[in-house]
Amino acid sequence: MRIAELYRRKRPVFSFEFFPPRTDAGVDALFRALGELAVLGPDFVSVTCPLDKPRRPLTFALVARIQRELGLTAMAHLVTVLYARDEVRAVLEQLAREGIENLLALRGDLAADEGARAARDFPHASDLAGFAREFGFSIGGAAHPEMHPNSSDWTGDLAGALHKVTDGCEFLITQLFFDNADYFAYVERARAAGIAVPIVAGIMPVTSVSGIKRMAAMNGNRIPEALAKELDRVDGDDAAVAAVGVEWATAQCEELLARGVSGSHFFTLNRAPATREILTALRAKGAA
């Protein structure tokens, strides 16, 4: 199933994101989590692509295995940093042979000591989108409700997003955010800039206080004061932290769905409980 077609349906699309583990035990744990979440009937799942080049083949192998063994529509993330054009062509041909139809086109972060030479063949995600389109993939891209860390202003940020769409991205999935106002403001800006494709909300259920603070600092995400206070109050109690995270993300999704969001993309961190609780609660309330 081509993911772009899912977003043309008259109902919200729910999807789950995983990352390639570093060990065989991690892969086993990943497939246990996938099995638990598969019963929820996700519209698709995706697997991230590490910046560590030698580990990237695991992403492509996992996507093929998930689709083959679990029967789930799967999307491969692909970063082009450190890849030459012929290497990217080989990856796309491999994915096509495995029956993978969906791709999230990303450049990837440039290390300070690498510079532009690390992405000379695909300096922008839009370049990858244009290249992958020739292979027939349904292509998505990333969006940044709080502005990409490398952008200096919204004009440049949105121009980059528009290039992705013009060059082949049929939908955009946002980075995590915790205040829906940031998402809605981004969508308004994007529409005004001529971006008409679905903009999917990326949802991160908090499971670790230190982890989410570190991630937010790295990506420039704002943690609303109300959420920060709740997390600080329960810090040290893992179950209570997870409960706060589920409650906050569920409330986010309820508002997003009520206001017609195209879909919610859950960053699972390769764990099932939080995502399962959120989607189960939304369905119990008739919101999904």
Give descriptors for this structure.
TIM Barrel; 48% helix; alpha/beta; 288 residues
- Give the domain tally: 1
Instruction: Give average pLDDT, whole number.
Output: 95
| Strands, total number | 8
Number of helices: 11
Low-confidence stretches: none
Distance between the termini: 21 Å
In CATH, the architecture is Alpha-Beta Barrel
Strand adjacency order, main sheet: 1-2-3-4-5-6-7-8
Strand content: 15-25%
Computed CA radius of gyration, to the nearest angstrom: 18 Å
The first-level CATH class name: Alpha Beta
Shape annotation: globular
Order of helices and strands: HEHEHEHEHEHEHEHHHEH
Predict the CATH topology. Answer: TIM Barrel
Structural class based on helices, strands and sheet pairing: alpha/beta
The percent of residues in helical segments reads 40-55%
Q: What's the main sheet like?
A: 8 strands, parallel, barrel
How do the helices and strands line up, and which of them pair or pack?
Elements: H1 3-6, E1 13-18, H2 24-38, E2 44-47, H3 56-70, E3 74-79, H4 85-97, E4 102-106, H5 125-133, E5 138-143, H6 154-167, E6 169-176, H7 180-192, E7 199-203, H8 209-219, H9 225-234, H10 238-258, E8 263-267, H11 273-284
Helix pairs in contact: 5-6, 9-10, 10-11
Summary of the model, kept short:
With 288 residues, the protein is of the alpha/beta class. The protein has helices spanning 3-6, 24-38, 56-70, 85-97, 125-133, 154-167, 180-192, 209-219, 225-234, 238-258, 273-284, and strands spanning 13-18, 44-47, 74-79, 102-106, 138-143, 169-176, 199-203, 263-267.
